[in-house]
Structure formats: structure tokens, C-alpha cells
Design brief:
The chain is α+β, with helices and mostly antiparallel strands. It has three domains: about 375 residues, Up-down Bundle (Substrate Binding Domain Of Dnak, Chain:A, Domain 2); about 80 residues, SH3 Domains (SH3 type barrels, Roll); about 55 residues, SH3 Domains (SH3 type barrels, Roll). The chain has a five-stranded antiparallel beta sheet, with no helix packed on it. A five-stranded antiparallel beta sheet has the order 11-10-9-8-12, with no helix packed on it. β4 and β5 form a beta hairpin. Keywords: Coiled coil, SH3 domain.
Length: about 600
């Protein structure tokens, strides 16, 4: 079961943190149980029975909060979390055990109690770090929120001064008064621009927190809690193993414990917690421009020459900062990818497994949890700086409106996020003032179409390990016909040969990427293969597909473009265009509805 608290529960840090904290604190109950039991084992069944009854009552008191949290939206009734069911099984079976030897008591003290104390202390420390991490992000986010209020106050104050200056100017038409009036107007407009930028930054950081940072923190707490459940399962399984070796008469009871404990998949607790804590969450409202009650104005950026000088400087500064931190973030994302994949491998091995693992393996996973937390902290902080710079650039760029502030996109290149996330990175340059006037009018038109990009509210990292959908990628397949490679990017196959699909044909190009058992990787015609998982019978074509068929590349239009000449092609946002000739001097040739022509390369993206 692949679940994500970050995907399912919105703005639920307090609830999740309390839930995880309760689970960790509950370990002290388990620890106390076995410590007390080790002493009672010496006095045999009478005290052992009393102890079991005592902890059943304790469990009843905390069962609801540990199963669904302290403030569930749906009451669980008599339902209990899988951990509670497993714990109940341990207690009830313990009631049936009346006699144990002294060696078993000593084994409990050495192999169980110390381990419980260790993991409780360690996991509580990790939980505190996640909490501090969230608090740090919230403080930083709220700081930018306060920047909006601060900018608003400064803007209102400048409007007040502007109005006073205007009134003085009406009484005096001297050149000095007019000059002072113009200076105050420029100051007011600069503060207005700053206010608008602060609004966009605050909105972007708000989205970043609720859709990127917070979900990752919640998933981190989820991983911590599931690791705790897994480690507890291992400890419980250890106690049952000790009892088996101590007394064959209780084997039947202990085997029953094993069955229930092994059914306690860590994600079951998560599933129950999510189900009973779903709530109708509404995204906080975006910040928006509020005009001064004194100086009436609209939300448009002021692009007069004096104000543009200030914007040009700010754009240059933001561009330098963006270029620096986009590289830093890319490096940190690659490190996170490696950690995530390692964590996933270990999690599949023992977090979701039912075998008793070694202490060393458990330590490896704990180290990965810590490394992931620290790396994510660094990335998130650097990414905030990158986002701020990016929003500032986008806000200024989209508001230039054909004036002398132009920052054309001179390069688009694909960059992989963790090797699995495709994203276009735009690099901006601010030309000298002398070059600005020579920019072709088409460039200004294209820039005016490129508005501030919308923040992606999809999970950045969670989708890598917690996707709820499946694809054909990686599925086993076999060849229906022989095919001989006709290019360096293709691979030869023989009829009946089996291999793994890397990227299945989803764009209609007719080609699928595979990896052979020999490690050879390349493209083959989709019609020449079939996936082994497919249960539907496949009727082979009467004539085998033509070998060496041309691969067709498609583009998707990002903006509308109206042809300005006979050799150009009119396109609309969303159109699927067949590529004829790739980017040449900023223009691409393609075919749409059997009509070929040129259009700006920046208006499309490759599928």
C-alpha cells in the first residue's frame, strides 16, 4: 500500500506531529511493559497476568488517539489501528503465559529494553528536527508575508506625501515645486512596484509551502512513524523468538502473536489515520494589490523611464541570484534523488516486509532518514532564494510592455529533476541600454505573450516515491518479429526475445525504448513488440510494419501566434504540431492540419 500523508492531508502538520509524537511516547509504555514483565517473570503467572490486564487498560485509553489522532474528523468507533491490533494480540497472548525462566527475564533486559529506549530517544530527536524544520520554514514564509504589509505601509505613506506635494504644487507653479512633485511621484511609483513584487513573492512562497515544502515534511514524519512501527515490530518479534526458545509450551501462543504482528504493515496505521482525518481544506487566499485610499491607482507596474531604471537594476540583481541558485538547487536535487532511491530500496526491504532484520540494516535506514532531512533542509532554503529571484524576474519581465527593459529568452534547455522530473529552465539576460532600441518588434511581441509562470502545485519530491498511478515503463515485453537496427539510437531484436520496456510509446511516434538482457538499450517499432503483462489477446498484423520507419516528433503550442507572412504558420495554444525542421535562428518549421510553415521556437515545446 503506497500512501502519502503529504498528498492526502492538507495543512496538517500539527495533527501529524502530535500523532507521530504520541506513537513515539507510546514506546515508553512498551518499554515499561517489558521492564516490568522481566521482573514479574521471576514470580510466574500470577503477576504476569495482572501486568497484562493493566496494559490492556492503558492501551484502551490511548488506542483511539494512536489510531486516528487526537482530533479526528471521523470517529473510529470500535476500529483500531493495525499497531493497536498487534499490541492487543501481544497482551492477550501474554495472559496465557504463566511460567517463564529467569534466563528469559535477563534476555528481555538485554535485548529489548535497551533497544526500546534507544529508538524512542532517537526517533523523538528526529521528530524534533522535523518540527524545527517546519517552524523555520513558517518563520521565513511569515517574514515574506510581513514584507507585504511593510511594503503596503511604505506605499501608502508615499501616496500621502505625494498628495501633500500635489497640493503644494497647485499653490505654487515654480520649477522647483514641479521638480519636487516629479521626484515624489517617482518615489511613490518605485514603492508601488516594490509592493507588487512583494505580493507575488508572498503568493509564490505561500504556494511553495502548502504544495511543496509542507507535504515533504509530512511525508518525512510519515516515514519516521512507519520506521518506528517497523522497528517496534522487530522488537516484538524478537521477544517472541526469545519466548519460543525458553518454553516450548507457549509456542502456540507466540506463533499467534507472530501472525498478527507480521500483518501490521506500517502503512496500515497511516491509512487509518488519513481516512479518519480527511477534512475540507481550502487554500488560503492569494495576496492581491490594494490601492491606496488616498492615491488611487491600478495594479499595473509603473514603467516610466525613471521607474524602469530601478526595475532594470532589480532585474539584473535577481538574474544573477537566480543563475547562482538554480545550479545549486539542481545539484541538491540530484543528491536528494540518490538518497530517495536508497531509502526506497531499504524501505521495500524491511519497512514493508515481514522479516526480522539486523540492527545494522535498521541503522542504515535511520542514517538515510537523517541525511534526507538535512539535504532537504538545504535544498528548501536555497530553493526559496531561487523562487524569490525567479518571481522578481518574471514580474518585471512580464510588466515591461515593450519598453526599454527587455530580457529575451536566449536559451531553453531541458533539465531533469531527480532524473525523473522534466522541466524547462529559462535563462534570462539583461541587455545594455544601447542594445535595447535595436531589438526587433517581434521580440517585444513574444515577450508580451510570456506572462509570469504559474507555480506548480504538484508534489516535487513525493511523486518520486509515492505515486498512486502505474505506467507501462519497466514492464516486460517480447518481440513479435525480427528487427534490425537502422540507426545509433535503435537496437536489433529477434522474434520471441524478451526485454524490459524503458519508455513506452505514448506520443504516437510509433517507437518504444527498451533494454535487453545484455544491457543494450535503444528504440524499436512499437508494433513489433507486445507487453507480457497484457491479458488481452493480440492479433498480429498480416504484414509486418516497415522497418526503419521515420520517427515523428511532435510539438505543443504554448501561445497563440498569427502568421505574418506566407511562409509562416498560424498556431493556437494547445495545438499538437508535427516537427519538420528544428529551431533555426529562433524559428521552427512544422505542420498543422496538413499546412506547413514557420513559427517562433519559444512559442512551442517538444512532447
Amino acid at each position: 500500500m503506497d500512501l502519502s500523508i503529504g498528498n492526502e492531508l492538507k495543512d496538517s502538520f500539527d495533527e501529524t506531529n502530535k500523532w507521530v509524537k504520541g506513537g513515539i511516547e507510546w514506546l515508553s509504555d512498551v518499554e515499561e511493559f517489558y521492564r516490568t514483565r522481566a521482573s514479574i517473570e521471576k514470580e510466574y503467572s500470577s503477576k504476569l497476568l495482572a501486568l497484562s490486564n493493566d496494559f490492556i487498560k492503558r492501551k484502551l485509553k490511548v488506542s483511539t488517539s494512536l489510531s486516528v489522532g487526537e482530533t479526528p474528523t471521523i470517529t473510529p468507533g470500535s476500529l483500531e489501528a493495525a499497531s493497536m491490533v498487534a499490541w492487543t494480540e501481544v497482551l492477550t497472548r501474554t495472559e496465557e503465559i504463566a511460567k517463564h525462566r529467569k534466563d528469559f527475564s535477563r534476555s528481555l533486559e538485554k535485548k529489548v529494553l535497551l533497544e526500546l529506549e534507544s529508538i524512542r530517544s532517537k526517533y523523538d530527536s528526529i521528530r524534533h528536527q522535523w518540527k524545527e524544520f517546519n517552524e523555520k520554514i513558517v518563520v521565513d514564509r511569515d517574514h515574506y508575508y510581513s514584507e507585504v504589509d511593510k511594503a503596503k505601509k511604505e506605499y501608502d505613506s508615499s501616496c500621502q506625501i505625494m498628495e501633500q506635494t500635489r497640493q503644494k504644487t497647485e499653490r505654487s507653479s515654480s520649477e522647483k515645486a514641479q521638480k519636487k512633485y516629479k521626484e515624489k511621484e517617482i518615489d511613490m511609483n518605485i514603492l508601488k512596484n516594490t509592493y507588487l513584487i512583494k505580493i507575488n513573492v508572498a503568493n509564490r512562497l505561500k504556494d511553495k509551502y502548502f504544495y511543496q515544502d509542507l507535504p515533504e515534511i509530512l511525508d518525512g514524519l510519515q516515514d519516521l512513524n512507519e520506521s518506528r512501527v517497523s522497528r517496534l515490530n522487530n522488537i516484538l518479534l524478537t521477544t517472541t523468538a526469545l519466548e519460543k526458545s525458553c518454553n516450548e509450551k507457549v509456542n502456540e501462543c507466540l506463533n499467534a502473536m507472530d501472525v498478527v504482528i507480521k500483518q501490521n504493515v506500517p502503512s496500515l496505521d497511516t491509512a487509518m489515520f488519513i481516512k479518519h482525518n480527511l477534512k475540507d481544506w481550502k487554500e488560503p487566499q492569494d495576496f492581491y494589490y490594494i490601492p491606496s485610499s488616498i492615491w488611487h491607482d491600478d495594479e499595473s507596474m509603473v514603467t516610466e523611464p525613471a521607474e524602469m531604471n530601478h526595475l532594470r537594476i532589480q532585474l539584473s540583481t535577481a538574474n544573477a541570484k537566480y543563475e547562482k541558485f538554480v545550479k545549486t538547487c539542481e545539484t541538491e536535487k540530484q543528491i536528494l534523488e540518490e538518497v530517495l532511491l536508497k531509502k526506497k530500496g531499504l524501505k521495500e526491504k524491511y519497512i514493508t516486509g515481514d522479516e526480522l532484520i539486523s540492527k545494522e540494516e535498521g541503522y542504515k535506514y535511520d542514517e538515510l532518514l537523517m541525511k534526507y532531512l538535512k539535504t532537504l533542509q538545504n535544498f528548501t532554503q536555497d530553493d526559496v532564494i531561487r523562487v524569490v529571484a525567479e518571481v522578481e524576474m518574471e514580474t518585471i519581465q512580464s510588466s515591461s510592455d515593450g519598453n526599454d527593459l527587455t530580457a529575451p529568452i536566449h536559451e531553453e534547455k531541458k533539465s531533469k529533476r531527480f532524473g525523473l522530473f522534466g522541466k524547462k529552465t529559462r535563462h534570462y539576460t539583461v541587455p545594455d541600454t544601447s542594445d535595447i532600441t535595436s531589438v526587433h518588434s517581434n521580440t517585444n511581441t513574444m515577450l508580451s505573450r510570456s506572462s509570469t509562470t504559474t507555480f506548480s502545485k504538484a508534489r516535487l519530491f513525493g511523486s518520486l516515491l509515492k505515486s498512486n498511478t502505474t505506467t507501462d515503463s519497466g514492464s516486460n515485453a517480447k518481440a513479435l518479429y525480427d528487427y534490425e537496427a537502422n540507426g545509433d539510437d535503435e537496437v536489433s531484436i529477434s522474434q520471441g526475445e524478451t526485454f524490459n520496456v524503458v519508455n513506452f510509446d505514448t506520443d504516437g511516434s510509433g517507437w518504444t525504448e527498451i533494454t535487453k538482457s545484455s544491457g543494450e538499450k535503444g528504440l524499436v517499432p512499437t508494433s513489433y513488440i507486445e507487453t507480457l503483462e497484457s491479458k488481452a489477446s493480440k492479433i498480429p498484423p498480416k504484414v509486418a510494419p516497415r522497418r526503419g520507419a521515420k520517427k515523428v516528433q511532435y510539438l505543443e503550442a504554448l501561445f497563440d501566434y498569427e502568421a505574418a507572412g506566407d511562409d509562416e504558420l498560424t498556431i493556437h495554444a494547445g495545438d499538437k504540431i508535427e516537427l519538420i525542421t528544428d529551431d533555426t535562428d529562433g524559428w521552427t518549421e512544422g505542420k498543422l492540419n496538413n499546412v506547413a510553415g514557420l513559427f517562433p521556437s519559444s512559442y512551442v515545446k517538444k512532447l
